[in-house]
């Protein structure tokens, strides 16, 4: 059985992927949120609700649209290559300002269940670096998320 997202992943993993916009960017970035949420071995309802809120706010989706996007993102995340290649591909295809927003969204998911797990922290440090976001900017993003509550 062929991977549902094989063509998408193939395009994402090209040496010089075209910049992603619209539905592709939404899907890739939401899949990254799912990957971080799952990194501690739990995929809590609070994390799922946070991903849904992020998708609704960021992309202006209604409930059905959010559920569809998250469902496809969960499948993509399960089929995507290792985090390093997946995240580097996103870095090459997504503008810097959008990547800062992604880091804020990732911190929001990590903090959604009220527990800062060491696996989530480690993954977020790695993902920030792979997205070309330095530790200082990631820490500032985390502080903005914590302050927003």
UniProtKB/TrEMBL annotation:
<dbReference type="InterPro" id="IPR007791">
    <property type="entry name" value="DjlA_N"/>
</dbReference>
<dbReference type="Pfam" id="PF05099">
    <property type="entry name" value="TerB"/>
</dbReference>
<feature type="domain" description="Co-chaperone DjlA N-terminal">
    <location>
        <begin position="26"/>
        <end position="143"/>
    </location>
</feature>
<protein>
    <submittedName>
        <fullName>Tellurite resistance protein</fullName>
    </submittedName>
</protein>
<dbReference type="InterPro" id="IPR029024">
    <property type="entry name" value="TerB-like"/>
</dbReference>
């Amino acid at each position: 059985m062929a991977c549902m997202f094989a063509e998408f992943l193939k395009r994402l993993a090209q040496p010089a992927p075209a910049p992603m916009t619209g539905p592709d960017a939404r899907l890739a970035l939401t899949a990254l949120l799912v990957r971080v949420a799952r990194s501690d071995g739990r995929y809590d309802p609070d994390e799922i609700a946070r991903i849904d809120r992020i998708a609704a706010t960021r992309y202006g989706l209604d409930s059905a649209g959010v559920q569809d996007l998250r469902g496809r993102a969960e499948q993509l995340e399960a089929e995507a290559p290792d985090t390093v290649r997946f995240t580097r591909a996103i870095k090459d295809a997504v503008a810097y300002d959008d990547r800062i927003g992604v880091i804020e969204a990732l911190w929001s998911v990590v903090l959604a269940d009220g527990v800062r797990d060491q696996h989530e922290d480690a993954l977020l440090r790695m993902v920030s670096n792979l997205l070309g976001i330095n530790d200082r900017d990631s820490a500032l993003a985390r502080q903005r998320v914590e302050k927003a509550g």
